[in-house]
Amino acid sequence: MKKTFYSALFVFLLSATTLDAGLLDNMMKGMGGPAKEGPDESTTASGLKEALSIGTEKAVKNVSRVDGYFGNQAIKILMPESIQRVADVLGKIGYQKEVDDFVLSMNRAAEKAAPRALSIFVGAIKEMTFDDARGILSGGDTAATEFFKRKTHDKLYAAFKPIVSSSMDEVGVTRSYKDMMAKYESIPFMNKQSLNLDHYVTDKALDGLFYMVGQEEIQIRTNPAARVSDLLKNVFGR
């Protein structure tokens, strides 16, 4: 009798142990334990680089086309605040066309210069480290864009400014500005105004470009349809 009792007890304890092990295993799976691992560092870095490559290429393409800046109210380059009074006065005395031409020509210069930014973006993407990737992946919706801005803004500005300057000459920004200011200064009692056009247009062009890169990053992070490769789905779909 005792032997039968101890045998039954042994079977019961063995069954209970097996059940608990299975339950623990299921709990680990449900809690994201070892049964379900995320992408490794190499995959994460590759995914972020691909995301930035796609985002920057689309952003540059969007702003480089005709009306890429001028037709987009979020990044359109407006009249500089320092000479807004000039624009207001000229508009009131019949020279609104000159003001409008100046604004249009600034945006055309930015659109013309924008394609040259792509190679600089590509170079910066290649230099991204695993630590950079980890920090970006755990950051906000535009963490990659902010990282990108910190790392590349000065280099982009230095490369972008002479292109913008040349483009402004080609599309008539400088001529439009001089015509507008000449008319303003011909009005009695109006003080001469000055503006560093090269700096202003370059700065605003880069602001607009980074804004568009940020929008593309947000799409990849939040919209599954924007993850156009298995790599992006693996890294950003978790």
Molecular structure report:
The protein folds into two domains: 37 residues; 196 residues, no CATH class. α2 crosses α6 and α3 crosses α4. The protein has 238 residues and is mainly alpha-helical. It starts with a helix and ends with a helix. It contains ten helices and no strands. It is elongated and about 70 Å long.
Draw up the topology in text.
Elements lengths: L1 H29 L10 H24 L19 H9 L3 H18 L3 H10 L3 H8 L5 H29 L1 H13 L11 H26 L7 H7 L2
Intertermini distance: 58 Å
The tally of strands reads 0
Low-confidence stretches: 8-36
Name the structural class.
mainly alpha
Major sheet attributes: none
Number of helices: 10
Task: State the share of residues found in helices, binned by percent.
Answer: over 70%
Beta-strand residue fraction: under 5%
Keywords summarizing the entry:
238 residues; mainly alpha; 73% helix; 0% strand
Short recap of the structure:
The chain has 238 residues and is mostly helical.
